[in-house]
UniProtKB/TrEMBL annotation:
Full protein name: Ribosome-recycling factor
Protein family membership: Belongs to the RRF family.
Domain of life of the native organism: Bacteria
Residues of the Ribosome recycling factor domain: 21-184
CDD domains: RRF
Keyword set, alphabetical order: Coiled coil, Cytoplasm, Protein biosynthesis
Its biological purpose: Responsible for the release of ribosomes from messenger RNA at the termination of protein biosynthesis. May increase the efficiency of translation by recycling ribosomes from one round of translation to another.
Pfam families named among the record's database cross-references: RRF
Organism phylogeny: Bacteria, Pseudomonadati, Pseudomonadota, Magnetococcia, Magnetococcales
Parts forming coiled coils: 140-167
Subcellular location: Cytoplasm
InterPro entries to which the protein is assigned, alphabetical: Ribosome_recyc_fac (IPR002661), Ribosome_recyc_fac_dom (IPR023584), RRF_sf (IPR036191)
Amino acid sequence: MIDPAVMQTLDQRMTKTILALKEELSAVRTGRASTNLLDRIVVQAYGSETPLNQVATLNVPEPRLITIQPWDKKLIKAIEKGILESDLGLNPSNDGVLIRVPLPELNEERRKELVKMVQKTGEQTKVALRNVRREAMEMYKKQEKNKEISQDDLRHLEKVVQEHTDQRVKEVDEIVAHKEADVMRV
């Protein structure tokens, strides 16, 4: 008998892999400001490292500006330090109440570097999807070896798994292409 749990697990793991790709790419800078850019920044607050969005309100009032309003004014220096220490290359400024993070215009060279990084992330995601596919195929081969499924079922299931993987790889290509277009848009 064919076990549907393998396909469910395959689908869940591939979905999680694609969600991880989307999350990773949301932190990649494009021509417009986005609060997602600061999602990975942690701030030394109250004796522990805390995500920035848990100690402040983030807004995008203009296409090239992010504003950060800390809930506790004492955290302004810690937030500025967190942004400066990040690999984003941003220079925040504050007026004692509000932190402004202007986003400089991306030059052509930096855009191309970002596109390469996006492509690399996409390729890593495809490798992860193929690993999930390989594990599912191994599970089906094991079932066939234990005489739980027939060889015909195995061939059919391998074909279904491959089609599912191809569909997910195509989805990754579309996500990467969309992000590349966003990065290259001036």
